[in-house]
Structure formats: C-alpha cells, structure tokens
Amino acid sequence: MTRQPGQWRDIDAPPAPPPPARVEKGDLRFTFINHSTTPLQFDGLNILTDPVWSKRVSPLPFVGPRRHRPPGIRFDDLPPIDRVLVSHNHYDHLDVASLRRLQERDAPRIVVPLGNAALLARYGIRNAIELDWWQSEDGITAVPARHFSSRGLSDRNRNLWCGFVIASQSGNIYFAGDTGWGTHFQEIGDRFAPIRLALLPIGSYLPRWFMQPVHIDPQQAVDAHFALRAETSIAVHFGTFALGDDGEEDPVWELKEAIVRKGNPRFWILDHGEGRSIPPIARSERGRTASSIT
Question: Using CA atoms, how far apart are residues 266 and 280, in angstroms rounded to an integer?
C-alpha cells in the first residue's frame, strides 16, 4: 500500500563474449553476469556464485519477479565450473534449474550454508557440502551475514545463510551474498586481510524501513569496503530483478556519489557481461593469505 517503486526498463542486450576457459596462477579474473551471478577465475580454478539463468525468481514460472535483462553471458558460454557457492535459499540466489544444468554439464561441488544440502537433494542435486559460519572446506570459509532464509510460507529461517571467503594463493576473495549492515564486515576483515577482491551487494535497499535489516545500501557498501580493508570491490545484486523500490539505475548513481564522497576507493561498477582482471594485492600485504583452495 505504501510502495513507491522506481523505474525499470526491459533491455534485450546481446550477450558478451565468453570468459577465458582458465587463468594462470596468480591471476584473478571476475565477470559480472548480473545480479549475484559471477564467475571467479584464479589459479586455474573456476568458481561460480549464486547462479541464476531462469527468467523468474519465484516458486512459479508464470508469476513473481522477472528479469528485466538477460544474463550477460550465455549459460553455454560459461567456462568449466569447478565449484559453486550458494549463499542462501532465496529464489534469486538458489535457482534449482540453473544448478541442475551445472550438475549435468560439469558436476561441480556445491558449497551451501547449513540445511541447504537437503533442499538440493530433494531436486536430485546431491554434490553439496554444508558449512556453518566460520567453518572451512578446501579453502572456502562460510562467514556471517545479516539476512534471513525462506522459500515458502512455513520455512522462514530454518536454513542458514552466509557469505563466503575464498583463499587464493595471491589474495583472498569475499562474496557477501545478501546482508544488512553489521560488525561482521570488520570481523571478516580482521580475520582474512588482505582481501584482494570483495563482491558487495548494492541493490534492493528501498524502502529503508523495510530493507535495512537485510540489505545494505550503496553508501554502506562503500563503508563495508573500508571495514573489510578490501583492495578492490565490485558491485553486485543490481540491475536485473526489481526486488525493492529502488529503480534500475538508483543503486549505481548512489554508489557513484558515495565513492566520490568517501575518497574514491577502488570500487568498480561493471556492465552486464563485462569481465576484468583484478590488480594484485599490495606488496606489503603479501604473505598473509590463508591456506588456498586446491
């Protein structure tokens, strides 16, 4: 009754060229497919976060939030995927159809927070590892987030949600998933610095009285960059699904203003389908990375 939704366009953009099949040791490449779906390529490994290629993020295929633009990379153009990280069970992050396609094509190991392996198993997806907050497996650590979980009317908060830190040989990578503001950013930075790359959500933040507990806004995303002591941050979770009252372009404009206002840190906003190589961590910080993924 009180919503004031921003403007969204329907954009039929062509897909970007495929990412490379692999990158070499020491390199780190990021591709923004859109929303929270991102391939991370480093040290010969390919990790995919919250893969969603479906047209709607809903329990029903004919109703619910729909795409306002296609994925920036076609599914068939993905490089081979070794690991998948799923931050929580909301439909815009845990997309069963996309996970099934990945299982059939690459059989990657899927890392999920507690309670979600059983959910995946109900759909025939069985190659999942569950982690509690601060628990690690093969160089991947589940870290706290301030959010919630549900896929229906009767399962609220029965499954855990999380962010992830990935340890690479040349710097750690933080994927926030969905989260509101909290002291966890500082604690993650204290435990895992140097963070070479942080993936921070900027969309679905309005109205603040409703979204503030579970989604940071663009200004808080810049605050998180500093709390984490990240060397490079990249914006995710925007420009694809209209999930809040912020319009398609609102998160980007507010983030640009916050970046300038807070001293112009290295915080990138990529086009859909765009990929970039991430600068190496500062020489003074090298040698402090955690045990890396293999």
Answer: 13
Tens-digit pLDDT profile for residues 230-253: 999 999 999 999 999 999 999 999
Bridge partners for 38 per DSSP: 49
CA–CA separation, 288 and 7 (whole Å)? 45
pLDDT at 286: 55
Q: Check pLDDT > 90 for residue 153.
A: no
Q: Where are the domains of the chain?
A: 28-285
The residue to which tokens 């300038």 are assigned: 260
Cβ(162)–Cβ(87) under 8 Å?
A: yes
CATH of domain 28-285: 3.60.15.10
How would you label 127-153 residue by residue, b for 16+ Cβ within 10 Å and e otherwise?
ebebbebeeeeebbbbbbbbbbbebee
Query: Burial of 97 by CB count in 10 Å (0-12 exposed, 13-18 middle, 19+ buried)?
Result: middle
CA–CA gap between residue 294 and residue 277 (Å, rounded): 20
What is the mean pLDDT of the segment spanning 103-121? 97
Name the helix (H) or strand (E) containing 220.
helix 218-228
Give the model confidence (pLDDT) of 51-79 as tens digits. 999 999 999 888 999 999 999 999 999 99
pLDDT band for position 284 (cuts 50, 70, 90): low
Interatomic CA distance for residues 227 and 186, integer angstroms: 5
Helix (H, G, I), strand (E, B) or coil at 166: strand
- Mean pLDDT of the region 13-20: 97
